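task queued by scheduler; priority normal; single chain, no ligands, no partner chains; default sampling; output format set to structure tokens
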Amino acid sequence: MSIIKSDILILGSGIAGLTIAIKTAMAFPNKNVFVVTKADESESNTKYAQGGIAVVWDKLDSFESHIQDTLKAGDYINDLEVVKMVIEEAPECLMKLINWGAEFDFDKKGDLDLGKEGGHSAHRIIHHKDITGLEIELTLLDQIAKLPNITLLPYHFAIDLITEHHTEGKKIVSEDEPINCYGAYIMNQKTQSIDTYVSSVTIVATGGIGQVYASTTNPTIATGDGIGMAFRAKAKITEMEFVQFHPTALYRPGESPAFLISEAVRGFGAYLRNKEGNRFMLKVDERAELASRDIVARAINIELLKTGEECVYLDCTHLDLTAFKNHFPNIYEKCLSIGVDVAKDFIPVVPASHYLCGGITVDKKGKTSINNLFACGECSRTGLHGANRLASNSLLEALVYAQNIAEEIITNTNYLKEKLVQVPEWNEEGTTAPDELILISHNRKMVQTIMSNLVAIVRSNERLEKALDQLNYLYQDTEKLYNKTKLSPQLCELRNLNAIAFLIVTQSLERKENKGAFYSLDNL
């Protein structure tokens, strides 16, 4: 175990974390920037983003139109100033990404090919086939490799943020107390040593929470680690009740993560049908299949409850097959691999946990309620999404906020002044290696089952209270393991999932009106 000093410590290697790393490393060539990620450096929610980035690009489109679409999708509880800022800064941020080498699709006229997705009133989705996220991720990693003052640390697991709780032995009981962040305790998964990373500035960019549910489009790494750490450090965390379920995950029982059938497929003209072949969305919303995700997911959920079926279907049989294969090559091949030929077969789909609209509360510069701690990307609550995220606004949010955070650090060099505090090394005295990991994996499955059965698309106070009782038992059981057992990534992920589940349930109980992705039978 050792103490390692850095100027800028970034937890997470998706679009948010890597963009901040590049911008700050370029501005401060003599400062060291550490990027910590618990898996391979390319493994992130960004990598799996299919649709693209929503940007006003066409002359027939307008900022005001994109703003209104975002507000409508968010059920008008978005922060209007944040919505305006993100949408108006988007084109400039996209140009920087293109200048770094990101390649997007062009139409026959040589212009950027603009897709359309649910909730959008115009064609404004910039994309690279159906693997936009991967293209962006590889572009950013290519830039990272050119900057010698960036250190990438794959297979390193951030355990906890370092605050006065560690440096002064101070028990922090309220988020209203002044709290400072001095870095993080991080486990090297190959050596199992837990090192102390002391940093002038720390950025949490750890992605989403999808794995708190049994069925999710998120990769296995999406266990809410950043929010869990921030919660334990007493950062302000809000609007966790707004979990967006993507309407069209490929129905494959037991497959995790679920394969996503992009929103863009419906934007391309696909229809949703029930087992009888009827387009049920026509009776639900005037936009039919292109209504916002909360409306479509809820409609599918109602259809499944009404019919007793396990899935509905996406009909692409009337679409131009050549154009479909060109636009969605990976979706086409995935469907073919399970015996579904989109030219003549319907694609079986169900809703799955997809995106968190709440999280660590930040201001317009990405600052959290803890000094020297920023948050960016899906782990943050910026106010852009309101009660439900508009399709393809997530990569957009990460890009703009990464730019703002980098600018805040660059223009206020006080952030990078060394903090003169004594940070203790990690203490695991009195703990022993576990004999087996079955208790951890069992409890993880229990959390996922509770959340999927009791805290999914449609909720009720009775279900939420029952979920809370069961989660409290699992929390106590996990803390017993934590206090006596040497840490492992599996145990840390379980603790974080416990925290995420608790936050979603308790903040769901506090909301007394149905908004966007939150729907309770008690609020009807």
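post-processing summary
- The chain has a mean pLDDT of 93.
- The two ends are 55 Å apart (CA to CA).
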